[in-house]
Structures are given as structure tokens and as C-alpha cells.
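Revision sheet: C-alpha cells.
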Amino acid sequence: MIRLSAAALACGAFIGVAALAGCASDNAPPAGQPTFYQSLATPDAKLDANAAQSMISGYRSNNGLGPVVIDPALMQLASEQARAMAERDKLDHSVSRPFQQRLQQSGFNAGVAVENIGAGYDTLAEAFSGWRESPAHRANMLNRDVTRMGIATAYAPQSRYKVFWSLILAKPADQHTG
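Predicted:
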């Protein structure tokens, strides 16, 4: 049996915080600053998935949980979701297909899978902070059963949100808890 969860989004607070935080960010972080401060609200910006993995794994470790590793299939699935939301200018777990259906069609055989989405955060630091402050999103990042992750953004210049986010955390069905 697959356990799936898709965190709901408190759009008012989520977008309000993002709008304020976005006013102060430039495209590139000052020299020596981590890439999680880099603005992704440009056509050529690239999300640093390793920085995201490190940030999320560190947060999990601080809460007594094991790390997550980047999974290529989940990266692809997250990318498709972020792009679908950006193309439709819509923040929705089911914008193209429901999460469970997307997961099953991806070929990733999940025993556990959860998804966080977001929009309006220009940087990884802002998106992570927003998810950390939301009880449902925080619960997904601190799900004790997940071991893999995929994360992606998509830039939509005509959207009021500009940057759409997808984070998928999962555990393969055939992976045993050690």
C-alpha cells in the first residue's frame, strides 16, 4: 500500500511572505554566499539540488531523522510538476494529474511519497523557510520514512508568482528500514 500526502498551501500567508522577501533579492548572491540565496526568478537561473538536499537533510538531522538523497526519477517528476504549474500559472498538486497518478506513471515504485509545492519564493532559502513554517509542509520534510528526494523550480515571467516549486520526498517500496 502506498501512503501519499500532498501538503495543502496557505496561499495568503505563503505569497505575502514571499512578496516581501522577494523585494530584497538580486539574481546572484554576493561572493561567498551559499547558492540557496540565489534568485531563481530569471530565465537562466538553475536550482542547486545539492544545496537543497543538504539543507533538507540537515533539517532532518537536527530533528533526529536520517538524510535524503537525490533521486533522478523524483527530480524528473518534480521538474514536470513545477513546469506544469508555471505553464498554467496555477499552484495546485493536481494541475496536470493527481500526485498519486503522476507518481505511479513515473515508474518510481513508492512505499511512501509526499509532495510540497510552492510559488512566489525567489530563493531556495525562502522556499525552505516557508515550508518549514507551514505545519503540513514541515510534516512532509520531517516524514521519518522518506529517504529520497526530487526538487525543481520553473520560472514563469508573466506570472505574479514568477517561481514555482515542487519537492517530492519518498521511499522506494522495496527499501527496508534499517
